[in-house]
Inverse folding.
């Protein structure tokens, strides 16, 4: 997993609350257990009309957000089912962070497990970011996980909330398996003491 220290990227605003995992990546696309290829299904039900054409009214279909790597959304982002594919789809589509006033617990864990930074800011601060992204083509933010700070080129800055253990894992690029493997010496010692392998 790639460590996350400091990321600068274009902001894509999606100012909706209670965006659930079936909206992030619809169930009909859950046909693989690999982490790649889900980006094309991201927000498919919103991005695509019933006839299969792109809905130009959906923000992420706008050309100015084509290279966005920071998604900004409303409260309770990632609610619904526990599918890890939601984090995979966001990462595969090029997103490195999601900013929202709050996240569903399971999605938050899945995001951290995959190197996607969940950034919690107050709702009024997030609303201000959305307004600036709407008004300013190419609007970007820098997310500094070392300093736990979000900034822009115009002088905006806001400290954000993140669990200390999650922050440490993102900084070090540790998924759950890597966390376990850091203790392989202790695990081996335990096995020698307690496991009969004869």
């Amino acid at each position: 997993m790639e460590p996350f220290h400091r990321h600068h990227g274009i902001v894509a605003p999606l100012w909706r609350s209670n965006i659930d995992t079936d909206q992030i990546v619809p169930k009909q696309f859950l046909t693989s257990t690999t982490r790649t290829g889900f980006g094309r299904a991201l927000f498919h039900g919103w991005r695509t009309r019933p006839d299969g054409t792109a809905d130009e009214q959906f923000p992420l279909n706008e050309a100015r957000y084509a290279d966005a790597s920071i998604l900004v959304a409303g409260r309770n982002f990632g609610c619904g089912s526990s599918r890890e594919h939601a984090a995979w789809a966001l990462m595969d589509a090029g997103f490195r962070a999601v900013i929202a006033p709050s996240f569903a617990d399971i999605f938050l864990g899945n995001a951290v497990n995959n190197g996607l930074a969940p950034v919690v800011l107050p709702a009024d601060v997030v609303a201000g970011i959305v307004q600036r992204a709407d008004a300013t083509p190419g609007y970007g933010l820098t997310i500094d996980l070392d300093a736990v700070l979000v900034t822009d080129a115009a002088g905006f800055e806001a400290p954000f909330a993140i669990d200390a253990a999650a922050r440490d894992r993102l900084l070090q690029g540790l998924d759950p398996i890597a966390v376990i493997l850091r203790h392989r010496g202790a695990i081996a010692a335990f096995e020698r003491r307690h496991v009969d392998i004869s």
Q: What stands out?
A: Residues 6-173 form a domain with the Aconitase; domain 4 fold (CATH 3.20.19.10). Residues 6 and 144 are 4 Å apart (CA to CA).
